[in-house]
């Protein structure tokens, strides 16, 4: 007979009955190891008397420290007992597990050890620099011309220009984990081509000027 947490003893067993208890896989007892046996005596008592037959899940202790990996933020409530799983992520920004995954897991085994296969590699995920857009320039990212997963690239129109069909002169893009950008401008920048007297406009955003609530010209004309 086995138990996971609290064993069920037979009701009114005959004298001389032997009762065997073992913890289920991944569970252990602080009172015995292996199989616990007790015998029903003439006086209706068990010998030895089972003080505590409860079984607790095996605890694997602190997760292992792995090279180039760190515990993932997704481990909100870290459990280290049997069948618990712990996630790791690459320590270096912009890197993915084997170049494809955000996280890698290890699990707590029945033996009380963390099961770890060969630790994975952390590979940088790179987005190709955005294609040139007419009348614009690319703002360098944190890695210069190299754009890793999680980085932003920004395309700014030249002074006095906006993206065609819009009033926006800036277009941010996010490097996704599959190595592509989440969006592209789709339209070129075009000059506004409006010349006005200095007293008719004021500067906004450091680049364009507003004339009667319309974007009109680059500052400094």
TrEMBL record:
Residues 58-124, 125-191 form the Sushi domain. It comes from the Eukaryota. Keywords: Disulfide bond, Glycoprotein, Repeat, Sushi. This is Sushi/von Willebrand factor type A/EGF/pentraxin domain-containing 1.
